[in-house]
Amino acid sequence: MCKACDHLSIFGRIVRLLLLTGQRRGEIAALRAEWISESAITFPSWITKNGREHSIPLGRFTASIVSQGVQAGLLFPARAAEKTPFNGFSKSKRKLDELIGFSN
Q: Is residue 28 packed enough to be buried (19+ CB in 10 Å), middle (13-18) or exposed (0-12)?
């Protein structure tokens, strides 16, 4: 798979998780395997806007998306740096729009 296609695949998984969980973009982009248990995703206080630990239930569809991630570390690393969370939301959205033929 080409790097751009892989990046769009990651972007697609992030968007699906955003829709399913209602979490903030930065929280999902920074999602780490160690925050995921069999029944919940628990975001540590340092990643949430209000500074409080936050858990959400892990439903069947959400579990199927996060299970495609890595076994340890970031589920959605940036293209250029594996220790940096996914970024480039605007660029990914423009590419998606281009692929589906959407224009403003």
A: buried
Is the whole model's pTM more than 0.85, yes or no?
no
- Residue 77 CB contacts under 8 Å (≥ 6 apart), including other chains: 83, 84, 85, 86
* Residues pairing with 56 in the sheet: 41
For the chain, give the mean pLDDT.
Answer: 87
**Residue range 46-69, pLDDT digits in tens:** 999 999 999 999 999 999 999 887
Nearest to 2 by CA among 67, 99, 70, 103: 99
Residue owning tokens 């991630």: 69
CATH of the domain at 50: 1.10.443.10
Statement: residue 7 has pLDDT above 80:
no
* Whole-number Å distance between alpha carbons of 53 and 75: 19
Q: Which two tokens stand for residue 76?
A: 């959605």
Into how many domains does the chain fold? 1
**CA-based nearest residue to 86, from 33, 34, 29, 31:** 29
